[in-house]
Design brief:
By secondary structure, the chain is α+β, with helices and mostly antiparallel strands. Helix content is 33%, strand content 20%. A 3-stranded antiparallel β-sheet has the order 2-1-3, sandwiched between helices.
Amino acid sequence: MIGTNVTIAATALVIQAPAAPERSTLLQLSLAAPTADAAEYQKAMAEETAKITSCAEGLKLIDRLKARGLHGSFSVTVKSNVALAALPAPLRDALTMRPIGRATPVFGGGQVFRVLIRCEPTFIVPLPAPLPQQRPAPI
């Protein structure tokens, strides 16, 4: 009987303890489009990001957009150990309602369109490309 009471008390404490905030690695993909073609770029980004199933696949988005003839300014940002609770509610909800590896709907305004992806725990942040070595100019 005493063992049962201890188990019940321990369970109650676990239930009452505040949950640790969920932390994740997030990948943000951004596309700056020319003013004249912003709607076309937004549509293309929405179609291509809907196909993403992992953060590694998300990194290949630029190739797919270039294949469609879109040459906007593309950037990738990876942040690790992000507290999801610290994000604005619409973004937090969009991330947590999707499986890991799936992109949020396109957000942003004007000519910059973005998506966020909650990465898999096994996702490894890619190293930056090495800078090309410069040869000394002949004298």
